[in-house]
Design brief:
The complex is a heterodimer of chains A (129) and B (257). Chain A is 55% helix and 5% strand. With 129 residues, chain A is mainly alpha-helical. A two-stranded antiparallel ribbon of chain A has the order 1-2. In chain A, strand 1 and strand 2 form a beta hairpin. Chain A starts with a helix and ends with a helix. Chain B is α+β, with helices and mostly antiparallel strands. Chain B contains ten helices and ten strands. Classes of the chains: A mainly alpha (129), B alpha+beta (257). Chains A and B meet through helix 3, strand 2 and helix 4 of A and loops of B.
């Protein structure tokens, strides 16, 4: 091989740089990171069970949005027959008051952005301002 | 065991008391009922309308309680410039609101007096016809609703509205809101907004904020289909004006002189 002395170290350096994000995160312990959304202390129950909410909260909120705004129907009957007002600000955010400690935990980790918070404000957000 | 009259009455009384315990507990414990889900048929039975008694309104000079109340609960920003102003209720001189009633030598002194104007919640709303995304539409109870989620900010509705009732958010309004009212969302840049007849309050059996705030009771609100409602009673045997009635938009805001 011509210039093997240059090519092989060059390839090694290249591979090292390309895989840098992987081994860097491995060394710094970031691969084991699990988001920990902080649940409200004084409330025990969400509108639906935790597993359902974790997967379907987006669809649920989307349904609430169209039902409340476009149809004017604001009563939500949960799977356990309890009734709630369909409102992100007046129902959800009454318990989940802090965006940084709750929503952002997973949303930042997964890199999922949304526009809910452009208009719907968290109670904690205002106190900080 | 023989039951005497006194014993019977005691037991009957205690039973009655026991029966009232559960409903009483429900009333006094803080169980909040969810907001209702009216069916379209039930919504269609009503037609909300408003009447503004101008003489009562003018009795307090420079009062703007209605504007403050509305803008506070709906998080309407105060941008400080006329060009980008966002308004749900605002005063306009009488001669500008009712140019057809402006008679030069009528001897009346109200030509320059302020008239509070809102979205007229037209029965035949031009803005709805223009909106390409159905972000604004007429509800069954007559309220011209606005879905901020769906508005793309094309401003066709603003061009279509003959009353100038719609405002556009040229910039992020949040820094210009003095104190955010948490129960109502703010808006973002690029969204059109207007008066919604306090739809979110009507749902909870509350009167619109402006009507509630008016000390002179110049604003009456109610169901136009009900002859006994506040708004209908305010309109009996009075001189009534509407803004630009010749356009056929059929406004549901009446002005009483």
């Amino acid at each position: 091989m011509y210039d093997g002395k240059k090519i092989i170290p060059g390839l090694l350096i290249f591979l090292g740089l390309v895989t840098y994000p992987f081994w860097h995160n491995g060394v710094s312990g970031k691969t084991g990171y699990v988001p920990k959304p902080k649940l409200p202390v004084d409330k025990k129950e969400c509108v639906e069970p935790k597993d359902y909410i974790r997967v379907n909260h987006k669809d649920l909120l989307d349904d609430w949005k169209s039902s409340a705004i476009r149809k004017g129907r604001r009563t939500y009957v949960a799977s356990n027959q309890k009734r709630y007002t369909m409102s992100l600000t007046r129902t959800c955010m009454q318990c989940h008051t802090d965006r940084a400690e709750f929503c952002d935990q997973c949303h930042k980790y997964a890199g999922v952005e949304n526009k809910c918070w452009d208009c719907h404000m968290f109670p904690k957000e205002i106190k900080k301002e | 065991m023989e039951l005497k009259r006194r014993g019977f009455l005691t037991i009957a009384g205690l039973t009655l008391l026991g029966l009232t315990a559960k409903p009483g507990w429900d009333i006094f414990s803080k169980v909040e009922l969810p907001e209702p889900s009216p069916t379209p048929e039930r919504l269609a039975k009503k037609k909300w309308g408003m009447a503004v008694d101008l003489k009562k309104c003018w009795s307090l000079e420079k009062c703007k309680d209605c504007i403050d109340a509305c803008h506070r609960i709906h998080n309407v920003p105060d941008l400080g410039t006329l060009k980008e102003e966002i308004k749900w209720i605002w005063p306009v001189p009488f001669e500008k609101v009712f140019p057809e009633h402006e008679l030069e030598y009528s001897g009346e002194d109200y030509h320059q007096k302020p008239v509070m104007v809102f979205c007229n919640q037209c029965d035949d709303p031009p803005c709805v016809k223009y909106c390409p995304t159905r972000a604004t539409w007429k509800r069954k109870d007559g309220i011209v609703m606005m879905d901020f989620h769906r508005c793309i900010g094309c401003r066709y509705c603003m061009a279509g509205c003959p009353y100038g009732s719609r405002s556009f958010n040229w910039r992020d309004p949040r820094p210009f809101i003095k104190k955010v009212h948490l129960e109502f969302p703010t808006r973002t840049k690029g969204v059109v907004e207007k008066c919604n007849f306090c739809e979110e309050r009507l749902n909870r059996n509350l009167l619109p904020a402006c009507v509630e705030a008016c000390k002179e009771k110049a604003l009456s609100f109610g169901d136009l289909k009900d002859p006994g409602s506040d708004v209908r009673r305010a309109l009996y045997h009075r001189t009534i004006y509407q803004r630009l009635p010749e356009l056929g938009t059929k406004p549901k805001v009446y002005y009483i002189l």
